[in-house]
Every structure is written in C-alpha cells, then in structure tokens.
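Re-run with default settings, no changes from the original entry. Doing this only to confirm the output is reproducible before filing.
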Amino acid sequence: MGGRQVLAARRRLAQSLDGELPEHELVAAARAVVAELGSTERLLELISELACGEGDPAGCARLSYRHVLGFDKLLLIDGGPRHMLRAHLWHPGAAAIGKEDIHNHRSPLASYVARGRLTMELYEQDGQGEQGGPRSGGGMAAARYKESLANRSADWLLEPAGPARLRMTHVGQYTAGSAYALPAHTLHRAWCDTDVPTVTLFLETGSGRRRHTDVFTAAGPHPGTVPKVPLDVAGYLAELGGLAELLRSS
C-alpha cells in the first residue's frame, strides 16, 4: 500500500495530527506538516512515486476530480476520518460553476503553495437584523446555500438557505513557498492569479467533520445538484505524471 515516500508521509501525518487536539493546535500542526511535505523536492518524490502506482491508485482515483471551484483535485493519501492529503492544480483563467463562491469547510485545513501564486480573501457575515434576516446596508449581498453530499452519490447538493451580507476582512497573496491554515468555519475564496498553473498541497484534518458547509455566491443561482465526475485509474496516474513534470519544470 505504499512505497518509501508514501509510507513516510503517512507516518508524518499520523505523528502530527492524530489525537484529540484543540482546533487552534490542530490548525497550527496542519500548517507545519503541510509545509514540510510540500517542499519542492519532497512533494516531487511523493507524486512521482504515486504516479508509478504506489499507494492506493484505485481508491484515490475515485475521490479525484475537477472541482466546482475550478481546479483539479487529486487525492494523494487517504487517512480516513483523520486527514486527507491532496494536490490541487489550479489553471489560470479556468471557468467553473462555483469559481466566485465564498465558502467554508467541514474540518480545519492547511495549504502550501508549491508552484505559482494564489490570492485569497477572507470574509465574515454581517450581523442579523431584528427579524433574523441580514441587516441592510454595508457589505456584499449574497445568496447562501448549505452544501452537502447527495444521498447515495458523491455529488454536491446545494440547498438554498436565504439571503446574506458578507464583509471582506482580509486579502492576501500566497507565492511559492507560502503556507496558510484556517479553522473549519472560516469563510474564504481563493484563485490562481497568474498566467501559469499553480500547484498547492492541501490537507484536511480533524475527526469532527461538519455535516455541511456554507456557500455564498453573488453570481446568481446555483443548480440544486452538481455532479462529481471521478477519474479512472489510468487518468489519475496520467494526471500525477503530468503534475510531476510540472513540478520538475518549476
């Protein structure tokens, strides 16, 4: 179930993240380990090994696909409920259903930029009015959805949850060699803002996964269900091979 690099990465993830850590400690540990595993030489060795069929190519292919936010999502190591390590390949100028969406996650996350550059914005919801709806006035108007997995499939299910107003609290650029980590509820959006592909190593962690996430969009209504189209094994290995070549050219 793994060559030398795969087994070493699994051990490092378990050492850093297993156990019942408070969320702030888990976020800090995730940021440290994703930066360690995402260093150019180590990430290239891991992906090259996986591209040769090490690890669990069949299982990882089933959970690898083009994400609605416009990047290729390639599962590298499936740590079950504790952690999922993925490579994200961001294509410049990619059009996607949810490209402009602001969202949070089911669990704490950390990301390391191995190649290229991302811009990321952080948001918070404006306070509620007396009737429980969003206050009028400042901030950006948006439609809110609850996002979950559809029954008996891996598709995204988007349930309308009413209007909202959001306020941007931070914007930053993350170049190659940068890492960031966020608690599960943090609202954000990120995109590749260069004319070359961007590669990030992305880590979801924590055993207490939320049952749904929150998605906000100002770009118009979403379809109720968005299908996930997983890769087959041959396609998954080819994507990893291409990703390894991209990293070698960095």
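The longest helix spans residues 233-248. Residues 174 and 201 are 13 Å apart (CA to CA).
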